[in-house]
């Protein structure tokens, strides 16, 4: 399961960013399919990006909601949530893969504890304040402008490196976002998927669908003996398999000696 998941993560990262000429010329792809959202966190301004980020699209839609209700964007993100939920986090998010690779760097790792569980609530506040509140009240794409480390890495760093005019315009905001990126990168070496667990509002949004999403982890209640080996094995702050903090990665399956866990379609069977 682990090798298959890593392969899917790599394929998704390449598909999301298959405008390879953009990395060479530093130009953002503006083709017709750029209006289509990809499921995972992937910056619109990345030179290789051929689709839009769902978070960026949601914020842009909220900015224009006073004039036109964003049915298309709302429909897309709701579809991702209902069909996939946090499977997106476990399989289809390039920034999740980036953090997992950082975690492979040899170092002393911080294990989950009561503080990581408390901090996992922060991403829901960020969703409410920066993705919804600030765009609606201040007409500013709050998360993209002030926080998003994926946008800084994929868009900001590449574009500033390739464009001398942009380098001349660097100010305090870019320095702040580089500092946020540095904190995320360093923390991801010691804490498994630190950004996903504590800060990512997209993960918080998909977590809202953990009870109704059609795809994900399944528990055979008749086989399960409540030994909790699956939760102990998980590096995330889950209380049980498939809850709102579960990214549906399936790596707990091998920990179950009763074969009570599986991954697949959860409804309509």
What is this structure, in a nutshell?
The chain is mainly alpha-helical and 269 residues long. It has helices spanning 2-16, 20-25, 54-63, 71-83, 87-91, 94-103, 114-119, 122-138, 142-146, 149-162, 164-168, 172-190, 194-198, 201-207, 229-233; strands at residues 215-219, 261-265.
Q: Topology of this structure?
A:
Elements (H helix, E strand, L loop, with lengths): L1 H15 L3 H6 L28 H10 L7 H13 L3 H5 L2 H10 L10 H6 L2 H17 L3 H5 L2 H14 L1 H5 L3 H19 L3 H5 L2 H7 L7 E5 L9 H5 L27 E5 L4
Antiparallel strand pairs: 1-2
Helix pairs in contact: 3-4, 3-8, 6-12, 8-14, 10-12
Account of the protein in words:
This protein is 53% helix and 4% strand. The chain has 269 residues and is mainly alpha-helical. It has a two-stranded antiparallel sheet. It is globular, with a radius of gyration of 19 Å.
């Amino acid at each position: 399961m682990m090798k298959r998941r890593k392969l899917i993560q790599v394929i998704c990262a390449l598909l999301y960013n298959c405008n390879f000429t953009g990395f060479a010329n530093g130009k953002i792809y503006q083709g017709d399919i750029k209006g289509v959202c990809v499921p995972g966190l992937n910056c619109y301004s990345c030179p290789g990006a051929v689709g839009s980020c769902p978070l960026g699209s949601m914020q842009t839609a909220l900015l224009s909601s006073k004039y036109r209700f964003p049915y298309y964007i709302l429909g897309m993100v709701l579809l991702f949530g209902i069909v996939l939920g946090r499977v997106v986090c476990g399989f289809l998010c390039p920034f999740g893969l980036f953090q997992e690779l950082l975690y492979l760097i040899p170092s002393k790792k911080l294990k989950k504890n009561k503080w990581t569980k408390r901090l996992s609530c922060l991403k829901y506040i960020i969703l409410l304040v920066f993705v919804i509140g600030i765009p609606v009240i201040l007409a500013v794409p709050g998360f993209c402008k002030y926080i998003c480390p994926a946008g800084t890495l994929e868009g900001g760093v590449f574009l500033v490196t390739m464009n001398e005019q942009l380098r001349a315009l660097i100010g305090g905001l870019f320095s702040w976002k580089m500092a946020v990126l540095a904190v995320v990168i360093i923390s991801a070496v010691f804490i498994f998927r630190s950004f996903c667990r504590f800060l990512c509002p997209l993960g918080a949004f998909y977590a809202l669908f953990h009870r109704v999403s059609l795809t994900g982890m399944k528990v055979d209640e008749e086989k399960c003996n409540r030994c909790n080996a699956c939760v102990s094995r998980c590096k995330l702050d889950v209380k049980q398999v498939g809850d709102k903090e579960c990214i549906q990665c399936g790596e707990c399956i091998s920990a179950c000696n009763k074969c009570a866990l599986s991954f697949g379609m959860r409804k309509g069977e």
